[in-house]
Amino acid sequence: MKTEPHISHYTNQAQERICHCLSQDKQSH
After folding, report:
1. How far is CA 13 from CA 3, 19, 26, in A?
2. Residues contacting 27, CB < 8 A, separation 6+
3. Which of 25, 5, 24 has the alpha carbon at shortest distance from 13?
4. CA dihedral 11, 13, 17, 23 (to 10 degrees)
5. What is the rounded CA–CA span in Å between residue 15 and residue 7?
6. What pLDDT sits at residue 22?
7. How far apart, in whole angstroms, are the C-alpha atoms of residue 4 and residue 7?
8. Where do the H-state alpha helices sit in 1-29?
9. Higher-pLDDT residue of 2, 7
10. Distance, CA of 6 to CA of 12 (rounded, Å)
């Protein structure tokens, strides 16, 4: 199935968004 590379790419974007949100949260506090 060709879904695995797509999922890995999606999880990478999700982690980047989470890190970005965490960094903004730290700055706001």
Report:
1. 15, 10, 20
2. none
3. 5
4. 100
5. 12
6. 86
7. 5
8. 3-28
9. 7
10. 10
